[in-house]
Amino acid sequence: MRRNSLSSGGIVSRVLVVLAGLAFIFPFVWMVATSLKPSNEVFSTGTRLFASRVATENYETVFTAVPFWQFILNGLLVSTAGAVLATVVSVLSAYAFARLRFKFRDHLFLLFLGTLVLPQEVLVIPLFLMFRTLEQDNSYASLILPFAFGAFGAFLLRQFILGIPREYEEAAQVDGAGSLQTFVRVILPLLKAPLSVVAVFAFIDYWNMFLWPLIVINDQDLYNVPLGLAMFTGERGTDWGPLMAAATLAVIPSVIIVIALQKQLVQGINMSGFGGR
Fold it and tell me: Is pLDDT of 132 > 70?
């Protein structure tokens, strides 16, 4: 009876996982199917996934109606630079809060974590005024710098560093390694998985950023992908076919990165979630 109940529980759990997976995948399937429908059949086909023909012209319209390649290149540049900068800042601040001894360290860390509760809408006005004063608005710097100093990555990496035995660092110091050498040769190699988590999350956050670029960017040559998607909606309505085609292209970089780093992401989240004290 116990074996039967366990097998029944396993079947139920698998069914629930499959249903949850389908619930997450279905919007993407619908998006791709809509991108291949003629504009006049997007709503007339009802609940059917497929239309009377495959409308590949929607993808052609994406690149002829707007400079979408430029938006993709801008997004890749900003997201890659932002992810690298955010990862570097996160690992340095995490190491400082985990290993260095200085006055009010724990209080400063709690204050640092408090910034996580601030919504982006609260920050955009002071950030805009600051960059306008520095005459750096409407630039790549204004897109990259403001959100590279978040507390999430520092918290995640700090939790993992706290779980690393200090004996590793003490052994390196006995061999004559300084603080910088110990950090680079001992700590960093052990942080590959959580660093991947921070970098991927930062890349996706930059890639999907809409509100801040909408406020700070005036030059269309600096638009990112979300701003480019908004250009398919105007006073005369929304061109759903090309919009869904553009949205399909927009999710490809994030999907590729997540699939390529899947093992590192799972390992990093499992190992660094709440390790340490």
Answer: yes
For the entire predicted model, the pTM comes to 0.84
Q: What's the sign of the alpha-carbon dihedral 13, 14, 20, 23?
A: negative
pLDDT at 82: 94
Could you please report the per-residue DSSP string of 10-56? HHHHHHHHHHHHHHHHHHHHHHHHHHTS-GGGTTTTTT-S--SS--T
Are residues 241 and 42 in contact, defined by beta-carbon separation less than 8 angstroms? yes
Choose among 114, 271, 141, 269: nearest CA to 201: 269
Which one has a higher pLDDT value, 8 or 238?
Answer: 238
CB 199 within 8 A of CB 81: no
Q: Residue 105 contacts by C-beta under 8 Å, 6 or more apart in sequence?
A: 97
Q: Is 12 exposed, middle or buried (0-12, 13-18, 19+ CB in 10 A)?
A: exposed
Integer CA distances (angstroms), 116 to 111, 130, 207, in order: 10, 20, 19
pLDDT in tens, 145-182: 988 888 888 988 988 888 888 888 888 888 777 778 88
Q: Which two tokens stand for residue 134?
A: 């520095």
pLDDT at 1: 46
Q: What is the C-alpha R_g of the chain?
A: 23
Please, are residues 207 and 75 in contact by the beta-carbon 8 Å criterion?
yes
- Taking the C-alpha atoms of residue 99 and residue 78, their distance in angstroms, rounded to an integer, is 31
